[in-house]
Amino acid sequence: MLELGQVITVTINDLAFGGDGVARLEGGAVVFDPFAAPGDVLEIEITEQKKSYLRGRITQILTAGPDRTEPLCRHFGRCGGCSYQHISYPAEFSAKQKQLLDIMQLIGGFRDLTSLDFSFPAPEIYGYRNKLRLEPSEPVREDHGIYMAYGYCLKDSQEFFTVKECPLAMPVINQTIGKAIRSPWGRQNAKKPIPAPITLRASADGQCHYYFGRAPVNVSWLKEKIGDQEVSVPLGSFWQVNSQVADQLLKTVASWAEPLPVENLIDAYSGVGTFSIALNRPFRERILIESDRPDADAANLNLATRGYGCQIIKGTTEQALPKVLKTTNPKQTLALLDPLRTGCQEKVLQTLLKYQPEHIFYISCNPSTLARDLKKLCSGGKYQLEKTALFDMFPRTAHFEAAVHLSRQHR
Question: 139 with 237, same domain?
Fold first, then answer.
């Protein structure tokens, strides 16, 4: 029986979703070890005991695994952002592939996953993020007054530490951090009883915009790109942080949609209309559902600019989808879902099962909620899994994006 504080030697066999190394002990016990690499032989201290697993902390690397490498960032291990800077990128991408497979099998109950497409690694593993949010860490006094330093949250803590740059961010963002916090707006923000976080956003034209707290609404919209098409995006709106991988995702989903014999597109959780624009093929009806008003307005502008006839519904998918599907021919309909990390609401899933659109595309940045929702859609035999693809939208972190195509089964 292992005890807290006990030091043991383990060999890392795997990497779990979330980034922890996995060691299996004699007798079947599982130990999770942060910042471990496959093949590592480690001396670890037991830091936590649960009924089904243990957690440990590395005290010494006895033998480094073949994929272990030196982290680029000096804050790696303290910062809660990155999980994989200590291993080679091929090892990271391979681990994410296995994680998606395991989650689809264990949570989703899928056994035949031959349709999985793993051909979308990240072209760049550093300098890719077009958006950064930093929290106030400490006031700094200099000759010209006081400014607020900014940084990230310490791993497994509520405390923040100061950073001057982030290797994941695009260079223009790192070049702007120091200027932004010393700007008149930054100094004014530093005087507040509770200074606001800063968000820095690089757009397709190479400019870096920033704001403290909530995004201002009285500024010009950003110009972004979907392939070679320009789109308008409100400053505070959602936009994929990795433009290169987002382009891969959009092109792939468009290629899936191109041959489908459907006339109607329902773009739920549509944002600024990104997928509706990328699916550059004829539809008799394009119906977009978006609860955020600025995003809905931007979607309306973006599609109208291209001459796409569309209907924009400003409301939640949970409320709007039943009304839309009730008046749409399901055999001629493709429903595209791109929900938050929490996945689809139960009412949305039940609506899809009730009206059964012919095809469903589901885009997700959380494989666990994706698998959970797919299980509900497929377990009754109404839908089958056609295609699944992994897109490494967030290299060096524990996260990734996945896209799935479901088709209705006819009996």
Answer: no
